[in-house]
Design brief:
single chain; 343 residues; alpha+beta; Lipocalin; 11 strands; 21% strand
Amino acid sequence: MKNTQASSSGRVFCIGHFASCILALICAASSASAQISLVGDWAGRYQEDFQDRVPGPDLGDYTGLPINEAARKYADSWDPSRVSLLEHQCEPYVSPHIYRGPLQFRIWEEKDPNTQELIAIKQYLGTYQQWRTIWLDGRPHPPEYAPHTWMGFSTGEWHGDVLTVNTTHIKAEFFRRSGIPSSDRTTLVEHYIRHGNLLSHVMIATDPVYLTEPLIMSEEFVLMERGNQNWLYNCEYAMEIDRPKNEVPHFLEGANPSLKEYAERYGIPLDAARGGAESTYPEYMTTLRSMLSGGPDKARPTTPPGPSREAVTNVGPTLSGPPRRRADLVRSATRGGWSRRAW
């Protein structure tokens, strides 16, 4: 009798163990099937936000940005010829910014050689030759005092066919090339969504220093069937403008002559061009219509009155001639500066 009970118990245990193994295999297969492959070479499509992503935004264009007054002040002082300084000529863009320009990148997978479990997704970005690792093995982010880098520290997880990535430890840089700053406290959430040969990339940036709300951006990339792109970023330092060694181009408060040009060119109220979270919502259209119809204009001033637009600032002799007005240098740098940085 005891042998019969023991045999019965053994069969129950074996059946239960077998069922558990089958369930585990089913779950593993289900999990694996949900992880759509992102492997390949991807090139940008620029129908969306073309002005921002390719030629670059106009000076004074802060539209669509939930910025605070600190960010606005910083951008008001921005002189685009700053990128001609040797220290900035080949400086990479940070991860919340680098996808917002002409870009191609390669994705491949790193797997455990013994278990073939996916450990990480790797990226190589042709612009500025940057490398990213998105860890998928559950490791924690480093402590707050750990070094910050251009691409930051990234971990990811799958939600069905969507890869969600969280990035911290990002260096301070910019959200836009028109001088909208980002701090080293910026964090980034990304969603990679593949539909055939099209990859949608959604970014949600949070910056407690310069943003009052998360900044949401999106881009699309198409799978390249042939590797006919240039994958190297051949940037060389060169003295572009002869200036004193320690001079950093900038505008003092009230001295930037270009802040109203965008609003005047497109016939919109200055307040709408100055950004802010309230201007990003559909409800703002009512306010905008009121301004355009001659209603009360609550335009946010750029900066207190300062030097005249025609004021001459001696910035030193240029390589091609005598000193020029600061405004002329701004226009010159705006026309030529971006092409040097591959934008």
